[in-house]
Design brief:
single chain; 696 residues; alpha/beta; Rossmann fold; 4 domains; eight-stranded mixed sheet; six-stranded parallel sheet; 27 helices; 18% strand; disordered C terminus
């Protein structure tokens, strides 16, 4: 008997191929319910042949950090069982933060836009989750005999608002008259690369693939971008000799169906192939209730086909340079309608239609939704409409509703910013309260917390994922692109990614990068040599000195390295290692190297930013530093520096908070809106009309 333990968030369908394998005994446990008893959990792992750590919506490195904190990492490493890390969803942090691949025999990544960063020797991209083909690689490291086949035509059905179920029914009727078998499916992504290519692994038969798009945006293929008004491509052979026909139904108009049927018939008449297949792709999500409706309506016409998979292709690691696409969870229907709601909201908002139209869309989608909170939301919106509340406030409320439904709020952040102005927000709260609905309800805590997180994201807080989300890339483009040889100081450069970005945007920029950590500096020096900028193995402070820097004991120079041990002890719950570093001052450096100006001073030194600026009072007083970008975050709690301290130090500067697509002015200092100790980038621009000296 082969013993398998699966820990994490497990769905019944996810493990069906493991469950069906012969002589396999499976146990499942939610590892995060056992955090307080990790030792017993490891004892349980010791009795297994294979342990799969399945993490959804959690930072992949969190389990390793827990083991370190409990001094159990050695126990884990010495386990004899095979260990597989199974990560999913694009909102994960980078798995390589703590070199996760060093602690697992295999690492699978699904739905993650960070795949290009992974160690290609151990990390595998899952082109279609939870299918036998996806698990083929486990066969090499375990005794499980998997069936070597992949569900190409598994029942993927997607449904969305309006009368599209009627469109499905009519398409089904058309296809049935043509004696075509078909299935419904969805896909993720809008890249020009062909998103269904992985599904053709091992297919050697000739057949006709008719891909019908039921989306409002472009139907994108690898060979051509199809116009929305309806284009049918014929006689386009793929590598396996299959013909791809492509047709887009514009805005789900049923009047397009007759044209579709005509062109389909013409195309099929041009081919002499008898084997045919239809895939209807729709980008929206589905509830189980609608799957049942579609199944009952079209069940007799649905077709599932299993095709053999080339074993070597099934084991192909994720290509480092390509964008990830997949067809979602085979056999798993999610309840996340966020994408549908956001799309509907934007469609109505962009056309400046009354909010009641959006309300009707929602009522058409879920007229008898069993989830009480959504019924409550719906009733509140109906009440708003009856009170003739302005559409702006209703849109704002709708946006709050969207964010309360999902942890993944990247897509709504851009929409949130332009309508989250102060007056609209206060009007929203006033109308919300006047209609007898209280936000201050303990039962609403989780929803309110998500609303709070969305609100802080919309004002530039916790947008840390990358330079696009943080707004740094957009800021550098607008600030540096047109400058002739701007002088940029990158203080706290780490491995040089920020300096590289500066040189990419403006190759003429003169960049000075500073990193006191010797391990990080080794990487920085190599980047500087390649990028043609200067690198220095020093840090800056208010006085020149030798000090201790704290970091993870097994890190080779992490982005969390800091002068404050409390950052690790209090915030990261970790006892750090220390190393000695050299600190100078910006004033001294400018003097020694005869540098007359700094066009952009970027500072990211984990809580020590104020002290760096304190060491530049001479340059600040002379007005030779035009723009300063510095990070303000939870590390300032340990360094005990407030944002107000920066205001006092820089009276001749205007302050802004960096947003993904611009700068948010920080005027009229208020502790409530300014002293938020969480990741954010502050930009201070010198006001040439002001002559005040920097604070003493």
């Amino acid at each position: 008997m082969y013993n398998v333990l699966i820990s994490g968030n497990i769905y019944h369908e996810d493990i069906k191929h493991i469950r069906d394998a012969p002589n396999v005994q499976i146990r499942t446990v939610n590892i995060f319910d056992r955090i307080k008893n990790l030792k017993n959990f490891l004892n349980l792992c010791e009795k297994q042949d294979l342990v799969i750590f399945r993490l959804v919506g959690r930072r992949p490195s969190s389990f390793i950090e827990l083991l370190k904190n409990e001094n159990l990492l050695d126990t884990y490493v010495n386990l004899k069982c095979k260990k597989v890390f199974w990560s999913q969803d694009s909102h994960h942090s980078y798995p390589h933060e703590v070199s996760v691949q060093d602690y697992f025999d295999r690492c699978y990544i699904a739905h993650s836009k960070y795949g290009k960063h992974f160690d290609q020797k151990k990390f595998f991209y899952l082109p279609c989750c939870y299918t036998a083909g996806s698990l083929d690689d486990l066969y090499e490291i375990s005794a499980i005999e998997f069936k070597k086949e992949r569900d190409i035509g598994s029942f993927y059905v997607q449904y969305s608002i309006g009368d599209r179920n009627l469109v499905y029914a009519k398409i089904a009727s058309i296809l049935k008259r043509q004696n075509l078998s078909y299935t419904f499916a969805r896909y993720y992504g809008t890249n020009e690369e062909y998103p269904y290519g992985n599904l053709k692994w091992g297919i050697k038969t000739s057949r006709v693939n008719v891909n019908v798009s039921l989306m409002d945006d472009l139907n994108i293929r690898n060979f051509e971008v199809i116009a929305m008004n309806g284009v049918l491509l014929t006689n386009k052979l793929d590598e396996h000799g299959n013909i791809d026909l492509d047709y887009s139904l514009t805005h789900f108009y049923q009047r397009d169906l007759s044209d579709f049927e005509t062109k389909l018939q013409e195309s099929l008449d041009d081919t002499r192939r008898k084997q045919t297949w239809i895939s209807i792709y729709n980008g929206h999500c589905l509830t189980h209730r609608y799957l049942t409706i579609i199944n009952n309506e079209l069940g007799e016409n649905l077709h599932t086909e299993k095709l053999p998979v080339d074993f070597e292709l099934a084991m192909t690691p994720y290509p480092a340079t390509k964008t990830i696409h997949d067809l979602g969870h085979a056999g798993v229907i999610t309840y996340d309608e966020k994408a549908l709601f956001i799309s509907a909201m934007k469609d109505v908002a962009n056309q400046k239609l009354p909010f009641r139209i959006l309300l009707e869309l929602y009522r058409g989608l879920n007229p008898d939704d069993e989830q009480g909170v959504r019924l409550e939301i719906l009733e509140e919106m109906r009440l708003f409409v009856s009170k003739n509340v302005s559409d702006d406030i209703l849109y704002l409320y709708w946006l709050f509703f969207l964010t309360s439904m999902s942890d993944d709020i990247d897509e709504v952040q851009k929409s949130f910013v332009p309508i989250s102005k102060s007056k609209a927000y206060h009007d929203f709260i006033r109308h919300y309260s006047q209609n007898g609905v209280s936000l201050a309800d303990p039962k609403r805590y989780q929803s309110n917390l998500k609303i709070f997180n969305t609100a802080v994201n919309s004002i530039g807080i916790l947008n840390w994922r990358d330079t696009d989300v943080s707004g740094e890339k957009n800021f550098l483009i607008h600030h540096l692109h047109a400058m002739d040889t701007p002088v940029v100081f990158d203080v706290g450069a780490n491995n040089g990614s920020y300096s590289d970005l500066v040189k990419e945007i403006n190759p003429k920029a003169v960049v000075y990068a500073f990193e006191p950590n010797k391990n990080s500096f080794t990487k920085l020096k190599a980047s500087a040599r390649k990028g043609n900028y200067f690198a220095f193995n020093i840090g800056f402070s208010d006085v020149a000195s030798q000090q201790a820097m704290y970091d993870y004991s097994d890190a080779s120079g992490s982005v969390h390295a800091t002068l404050y041990p409390e950052v690790f002890q209090i915030l990261h719950k970790y006892e750090p290692a220390q190393t000695r570093i050299t600190l100078s001052t910006i004033d001294d450096f400018l003097s020694v190297h005869d540098i007359g100006r700094i066009d952009l001073l970027k500072i990211d030194v984990e809580g020590h930013e104020w002290h760096v600026l304190k060491g530049a009072t001479g340059a600040l007083g002379r007005g030779v530093i035009d723009c300063i970008q510095f990070e303000f975050n939870e590390m300032n709690v340990t360094s005990r520096v407030f944002l107000k301290d920066f205001y006092e130090l820089l009276p001749g500067y205007r302050f802004y908070r960096l947003l993904p697509e611009g700068l948010l002015p920080l005027e009229n200092y208020r502790p409530l809106t300014h002293e938020i100790f969480a990741f954010q980038n502050i930009v201070a621009m010198r006001n040439t009309e002001m002559t005040a000296q920097p604070g003493a």
